[in-house]
Amino acid sequence: MNEQLDNKVHIREFNEDRDVEVVEKFERNCETGFTKGISISTNMMGDPLCRIRLYPTHIMLVAELIENKELVGVVRGTIKRVGTGCEGTYVNIGCILGLRVSPKHRRKGIGLKLVKALECWAVENGAEYICLATEESNVASTNLFVHKCDYVKLSSLVILVQPIRYQAKEPSLNVRIEKLSVDQAISLYVDRVGRKAFYPGDMEVILNDKLSLGTWVSFLKEDDWIGLHNKEDNVFTNRTPSSWAILSLWKTCDAYKLQIRRKHPFKCFRATLSHAGAKLLPCFKTTTCDLLYAPFGFLFIYGLYGEGENLGELMKSLWWFACNLTRKVKDCKVIITELGVSDPVKEYIPKGPSNSSCINDLWYFKKVNGPNDENGRWTMTQPITHLFVDPRDF
């Protein structure tokens, strides 16, 4: 680490009692860069730890100038237990979230120092890998993590954002759609998705969370799914029809409150205060009326998966069902989903209206702990095509 920087900048853990207001002001300045205009206040405002609190092991670090105690950078981190798609194989993965450096103190090594400090924390807490997601167009992040911190690209992601004001189609008349119990959803995800996907090790926590609206499956009416209506019968996972599809819904409609202070907000808009929030505005590029609503929220569609030759029809019907369901949720303005670029399900997601949006993200990984067994370095040797994106990250 740069010795001169060490003498000027101190990295310490966030102190909730004294740092909340300072971090709130700092992040607002970093995100908007404006004192006037449009801002989106998320549930991180007033509670900077809100997203990472959902994980048992988490931390927030701040960088401050030794000379005057000015806060000049923040970073958040969590550790997740993640299934690799190989039966019974899990790894502990540290996740870097929300790295920010004050605009006037950038290009001085502060971001690098924050990342290194977070990596040390992750290793000390048993992380075997560390990951992060960044937008494909974010050259500064790529330079930092790839060229200075030795991260490698794991997968490309696509985040799809659609407003729900348009009239969604009805599911096909040939398709049955059924809601699963939480136990059934857990069984099906673990049994089928867990064989192929990169997925959360605490699936039951996600599906039992108060923000989870439920899980639905679709299959052809001519088929029978034995055991589906017996809520105690988990062997139904072995009796799936020849073709079927599944998805789950996550509610975040209380997260965003929009405040407009100028007549032409698009000219001064900057990324919002969370990874998900930065994805919302593009879907309104042809209209401003939705920006007048408050509170502003979205539903996240996740856990999309399916099998069989009729997967396309079944996934489209399930998608339209979910879209129509979200129209009944108060304050919900858009729906969001995130999939791997090479995930076959992506091709079956219906194209939304002209003001839908598609954002490309990249996942980067680095091995930081454990044996250097090349055969076990699954993150480096094979592309991740199926991703069970954790809705808690949104």
TrEMBL record:
Origin: domain of life: Eukaryota
Residue span, N-acetyltransferase domain: 9-212
Pfam families: Acetyltransf_1
Gene3D superfamilies hit by this protein: 3.40.630.30
SUPFAM superfamilies in the cross-refs: Acyl-CoA N-acyltransferases (Nat)
GO molecular function: acyltransferase activity, transferring groups other than amino-acyl groups
Cited InterPro entries: Acyl_CoA_acyltransferase, GNAT_dom, Plant_NAT
PANTHER family: ACYL-COA N-ACYLTRANSFERASES (NAT) SUPERFAMILY PROTEIN, N-ACETYLTRANSFERASE HLS1-LIKE-RELATED
Name of the protein in question: N-acetyltransferase domain-containing protein
